[in-house]
Amino acid sequence: MEVLATPSIFGIYSGPLQSNMAHPSYLTSSLAACCWIPLFALRCEELRRPELAGQPCALLSPDDIRRVWQVSHAARQAGVKTGLTVSQAIGLCPTLRLCEPDPVHYDRQFAHLIEALLAVSPVLEPAELGRVFVGTDGLERLFGGPEKIVSEIECGMRNGECEMGSASSPAQFAFRVSHFALRVGWGRGKFVSWVAASRAKPGSAVIVHPGEERRFLAGQPLAVLPLDPDTHRRLKRFGLRTLGDLAALPEEAVVSQFGGNGRRLWRLAAGTLSEPVIGREVPEPIVASLAFYAPVADREMLTQSLGQLLARALAHPRRAGWRVRLVRVRAELERGSSWMTEVLLKEPSADREEITAPLHTRLEQSPPPKPVERLTLELASFVPGTTELQLFARNADAAARADQRRALRRAAREIALRLRRPMLHHVVAVQPWSRLPERRYALIDYEA
To answer: 79 and 14 share a domain?
Structure first.
C-alpha cells in the first residue's frame, strides 16, 4: 500500500480547489467562455475505437451496467434514450453496439483538455465532464475582442493536442478536439456563457456582448436553468415556457413561491445575476493506492481495503486541521477496464466512520462489475477543520449541535423570506409554577 501526494486526473479540477491548504488562492473573472463537448465520454470511446463512428452505439452507465448512459446520434434516431435498460435498447435497435464504461480514461482525456486551456487562461472552473468555464478578464489586452479570445482558445486546444501524446503510444492517448465537435459560448458570467455554448453549433461559437444578456436570454427555454424536476414542473404549470416569461413576473412573486432559490432563478433569467468564474491553482489531493496480487471480486475484502486506504489517507500530515468534503474511489479492473465512484459529504468531516458509511453504501449500490486489480482512494476536496461556531467546541457533540443551529438558522431565514414574517418561535418558561397553563410559558420570535 502506498500513500501519494500527487494530483489525480479529473479530481484535481472538481470541487473547492486549493494549491496550499494554509493559504488558498482564488482567481475570479466576470467574463467567461464556456467550452463544451457534449457526450464527452462517448466521444472518447469513438476516438479510441474508430469503427464506432457513424454506427448506432451506446455507453453503459458506470453506476448500473444494465442501463445505457450516453447514446450516439444514430442510436437516438432509432429510439434509444438515456436510462433505458440494455434489453429495451437492443429491442429498439438490434444493431446497437454497447461499450463498457472506462471512467478513468475519460478523466485522463478531460485532464488533457484542462491542461491545454491552462495555456490560454489561468482561471478555469470545470462544471462537469466535458464542460469547463474559462475566465477571460484581461485577455482582451493580449488577444483582442471576444472573437479573438474564442479563436485563441480553440487554437490553444489544437496546440495542446499535439503535445499530449501520439496514437502510437497506448498509454498517452492523443486528444483530438476536432473529432469532439467543441462548442464555445462567451458572455458575462457563467450562466450566459453556458446558454450561449448550448446554442452554438458543433465547431462554432456564440458570443453575447455585454448589455445584450436580457435580450439573448428572453427566448431561451426554461430547461437551461439549474432546475430540479419539481421546480420545473411547477413553473410549467404556471404557463411559463421561456426565460422571458419568468423574467416578466415580479421578482417578489417568484420569491414567495420558491424562496431564495426562486430569487436566484429570476435574476438568472433576467440577466441581472452574473456569477463569476472562480479558478484556483491546481491542488494536491491525498491519494492512497493498493495493488492486489490477484484480482479481487469479494465485496467484503474490497470494503476492508477501502477502510485501510481511508485510514492511511486521513493520517497523512497534510490532512491535519482540515475536514474532507469529497472522496473519490477508482479501480483498475481485470481486462483493462476501470470503475470509479465519488461521494460528496453533506457535512465535511474528518471522522473515519462518517466518511466510511456513504462509501460502503455506494459500493453496495454500484459495485465494480469485474474483479479489481488495483484500488485507489482519493481525498479530493477539503474545508477548514473549524468554523466560527465550532471554534471552541470541546467535543464532537458540541460540534454537532453547532451544525444543527446553523441549519436551523438557514431554515428560519428561508421561511421568513417566503412568508415575509417570522413563523418560528422559542418556547420560554415564564412562570412554570403557575396553576394557569397560559402563564407558564411564552412564545418569542426565533431570530435567525
So the answer is: no
